Every structure is written in C-alpha cells, then in structure tokens.
Amino acid sequence: MSGALLEVENLAKYYEVKRGLLFGRHVGSVRAVDGVSFSLGRGETLALVGESGCGKSTTARLVLRLIEPTAGTVRFEGTDITQMRGEPLRKLRRRMQIVFQDPFASLNPRMTVGDILEEPLLVHGIGDKASRRARVNQLLGLVGLASYHVQRYPHEFSGGQRQRIGIARALAVEPALVVCDEPVSALDVSIQAQVVNLLKDLQARLGLSYLFIAHDLAVVKHMADRVAVMYLGRIVELAAKDALFANPRHPYTRTLLAAIPRPDPHRDTARQIPGGDVPSPMNPPPGCHFHTRCPFADERCRVEVPALRVLEGGHQAACHHAEKLPAAPAAEGAAAMSPVAARRLELYAARRGRAAAEAG
To answer: In the chain, how many domains are there?
Structure first.
C-alpha cells in the first residue's frame, strides 16, 4: 500500500525447543509466525482473526518490538524498526501503543488511575506536573470517565471501566498506531458494544490506525476495514471486510464463519466444521497446512505450499483452488451476539449516519 503507516514483510518468529536439563539438544522449532506480510494505512483498521494459537498476538507483539523477530521487516512510517535499539526505539514507543486483552492484569493494582495515566508522560518527559495532570483529566473525559476517578485504584472499577482506562493510557502519548489485542473478549457482551463504539469514535476523532486482534467475528465485522485470516502462523486470506464476509475464498475462512452459533432454533443446524485437530506448529503438515482438515484438498495441496496471491478485486487467498470453490453460503449475522449488544451497534451506526448526513 503506497504511503502506508505500517508495512510488514515476511515476518517470522520461531521458538527453539530443546530437551535435556543441562545441555539440552535442539529438537525442533515452534513456528509461531511464519512469513507474514501485510500493510496498514493511516486511519484504517486491519483485523487479524483465527483460532487460538494461530499467531495473532505474537504478530502484534512483533510489530511493536515487544518481542524480537526471527526474520522479516517491519517498517513504520517508512522506517525499518526491526534493528532499532536504545533511544530511537524509546522515541518510537510514543507512536505505537497497545491495549491489552485483560483490563485488570494490565493495570498496576498499587497505582491510582491518575498515576497510571501519568506514567507514560513521565517516561517520555512530556510536560510539567500541572500539564500532565491536565492531560490525565482530558484522557479520562475522552474515554467517558470523570476527573474524580484519578484517586481510585483499578479494583474499584468494573471490567468495562478498566478497559477504558487501558485505552486512555494507550492514547496518553498521542500514538498513530494502536494495537488492540482482543480488547473486548474479557468483557460482558453488553459492555463489548460500548467499548467497540468508543474505539470507533476515538478513531474518527483522532485519526488512529488500529491493528485489531479478535476472534469474535461480530466485532470484526463492525470494526474492521480489512480482515486478515491466520492459520498456523500464516495469513491464508486477506480482503476487504465486506468481500470476505460475502464470499470467503479460503476453506478455513469458511469454516470460521460456518462455526458461528446461530441464535435461531428454526435454522438448519448443519455446519461445515472441519474434522480433526489443529496440527502442531512444531511439526506442521507439508504443503498447505490446512489440507489435513480441508474438504477440498487434493494431492497438490499435500505437497505444494500455496502462495498468498491476488484474486479478482484485490482479494488475496493462499489456496490452490480459490477460484474453483463453490459459492459460499451467506454469512448473515456474522456472529452470535447478544440482542442488547447488537442493538447498541445498530443504534450507534444509525447515530453516525445521521451525524454524517447533517455534516454533509
């Protein structure tokens, strides 16, 4: 993508496996991330989805340099950051922040909310004491909390409020990129819509780019502009959100959509659930990693690794038979979401539509 904020090329992370207490011998490698490439534009949301253990969160941490890559390149605002060290890397932290999955574990229980939000400003030497306190109050208002919350501790808040504090902390140093690592999965479904709507509003107001890690496809459908589907450390499909939900071109994506429970007792309950277990990332099958569970696999799939290639309309899929797959059934509903949360999303979309019409 020309002028992209973030560009990732052939990113990989392998963990060595050794046996023996003292002089352990190398017996293999876990390929947590295996040759991932994508780009993220300014003001865009790219969602990474897939089963647990597919490498989504590891990819996010590699992008932020929270862990070191085995191979590959990460370019942020045109600069290769994979070899950065020391002060240049510390300055880069201001431009790239993360919202963690667990809003309680990610907050220091011994610090007040005011201290938690002020800490990033202190680390980066931003402002004096008065200006930092003013910034803390501004951040609390930005995420829908009150200024008197500064003296409270994390345990005094609900899960949704704690996640708002985590979001405020990520925004404290005015980043351009925010990695959202399953930011609503630990929340009640009735609260999820509130946090999702908050993230959308902040993106529109501040021009943020999101790398959004999720497994809830209802949230992905509401949040994302593009979706990348991962399986065993690789991206197997990448497309615009509407195109991917309307016509997935990889069998694994189809199984993810088909596996969504439907809250309708009158629907046909037959679903295309893949057989078998997810193969070990230490010893993945040859050829296409998904061929052991794929209903369309043939001999070519068992021996030849499919490249992630561009199909009609810019849709990308790593499948030898992407153009020949039968039409996918409609993925209406996109996910099992509570009626309360679904209604909140509907009201939010309607409100944004009216605001856009009035602005126009």
So the answer is: 2
pTM of the model: 0.86
pLDDT at res. 331: 47
Alpha helix segments (H runs only) across the chain: 56-63, 86-92, 113-123, 129-142, 159-171, 189-206, 217-223, 241-246, 251-258, 299-303, 339-359
Give whole-number Cα distances, 9 to 3, 36, 140, 212, in Å.
15, 6, 37, 18
* Residues 238 and 164 reside in one and the same domain: no
Give me the domain span that covers residue 280: 231-261+272-317
Is the pLDDT at 259 greater than 80, yes or no? no
> 């630990």: which residue's tokens?
186
Q: Is residue 236 part of a domain?
A: yes
Q: Residue 220: which of 205, 241, 190, 251 has the closest Cα?
A: 241
pLDDT in tens, 178-219: 999 999 988 888 888 899 999 999 999 999 999 999 988 888
Spatial distance between the Cα atoms of 269 and 264, rounded to a whole number of angstroms: 9
Q: Can you tell me the distance from the alpha carbon of 42 to that of 5, in angstroms, rounded to the nearest whole number?
A: 5
φ/ψ region of 50 (left if φ > 0, alpha if ψ in -120 to 50, else beta) reads left
